[in-house]
Amino acid sequence: MARPVWSGVLSFGLVSIPVGLYTATDTHTIHFHQLQRGTSDRIRNRRVNERTGKEVDAKDIVKGYDTGEEYVIVEPGELDDIAPGRSQALEITGFVGLDEIEPIYFDRTYYLAPRGKEYAKIYSLLEQALGRSEKAGIATFVMRQHEYLVAVKAEDGLITLHTLHWADEIRNPKEEIGDLPGKTSTSGKELRMAEQLIEALSMSWDPGQFHDTFQEKVSALIEAKKSGESVEKAEPAPKPSPALDLMEALRASVEGARSPKDSREKATTRGGGSQRTAKKPAGKKRVPSSEKGADPQTMNKAELYKKAAAAGIEGRSTMTRDELIQALADRRQAA
Fold first, then answer.
1. What is the pLDDT of residues 207-225, one digit of tens each?
2. Would you tell me how many other CB atoms lie within 10 Å of the CB of residue 113?
C-alpha cells in the first residue's frame, strides 16, 4: 500500500474532507550509476565547501539568496513559519469548465483519497458533483516548501489533483522562437490534402497501444552487452520534405495511410497511363532477399545486419547500410 506524499484537508464552502495525496504516475526510465572508466568504482557526489574543500554535514547547510552584494540566509524552519496552517489546507476557491484549462498548464497528476471511512460519503458526493457538472475545482496549497496551483476533478470514480503551471511560468512562443512561420499562404488543394491525411490517420485514443520503444532498446542493449553480443544501430531520422515535393509527399502519405496495396496500384496506374497492372504469374514464390546468394544491394539494413552477424563481422552494430554492404563484400573477397 502506497503512503501519501501529503496529508491535509480538502475544503469547498463549509464542507471539508481530510484527504491524502498519492502519486498517480510512475517512470520506467532505466537508471545508470556513474563509474570510473575501466573500473567498477562508483562515482559519489559530496557536499563540499568550495573555499576549504572539506565535506559539510547536512545539518550545517542553510539556504542563501544572492543579492549581488551578500547572501541573505534563510533557515529551513523559517520557510514553514511564513505559511502557518497553509501546508495542511487545500481550499477550493472556485470551479471552472474542464475545457477552459489549456493543456499547456497541466503538470503532474495525483490521486486524492479520504482519510477515513466516515468521510466516504462526502468524498463520493464531491466526485459525483464534479463529474456531472464537468467542472474542476481550482485551489492552491503548500507542499514541501512550494506553493502549487491545482485543478481538482472527477475521473473514473475518484478525485484527481493536477498541479498547474502559474501564468508567469508559461513562455511566450513569439519571444522564445524567432522564426515562427505564422499563417503562411497555402493553396486550397494543399490544405484539403493535409486534412485528408489527418482524416485517414484518425483513430480512437488508446494509450495501451503505445509503449516506450527507446527504453526497450536500452534494455536490449544491456542484455546484449551482458552476453557479449552487439546491437544494430537505429535508422537515421527521416529528412524533411522539400517544399517543392510537399504535394507529392502529402498525396503519397494519404494513399499509404488508406491502404498500402491500393497505394501501390494507384502509383502503377499513374505511371503507366491507362494500362492496368499486370498480374503476377501464379505458383511462383517470392525469394527472400536475405537468402544465400542474394544481392546485398537489394537488402535492407536489418537483412544486411543479420547476414553480417552470420558472417561474424565485428563492429557491425556501428555500421551504416553502405558500410555493411562493403564489409560483406570484403569478407567475400577474403574468402
1. 888 888 888 888 888 888 8
2. 19
Residue type, 108: R
Per DSSP, which regions of 34-114 are E strands?
Answer: 63-66, 71-74, 89-97, 106-114
In one-letter notation, the amino acid at residue 208 is G
Tens digits of residue pLDDT in 38-73: 999 999 999 999 999 999 998 999 999 999 989 999
- Give the confidence band of 270 by pLDDT, cuts at 50, 70, 90: very low
The DSSP symbol for 293 reads T
Residue 264 to residue 139: CA distance in whole angstroms? 56
Other beta carbons within 10 Å of 70: 9
Q: What would be the CATH architecture of the domain defined by 6-28+82-169?
A: Beta Barrel (2.40)
Q: Distance (Å, rounded) from C-alpha 123 to C-alpha 121?
A: 5
Q: Where are the beta strands (DSSP E) in 84-145?
A: 89-97, 106-114, 135-143
Query: Distance between CA 224 and CA 213 in Å, rounded?
Result: 16
The residues near 178 (Cβ < 8 Å, ≥ 6 apart) are none
> Which residue spans of the chain are classified as CATH 2.40.290.10?
6-28+82-169
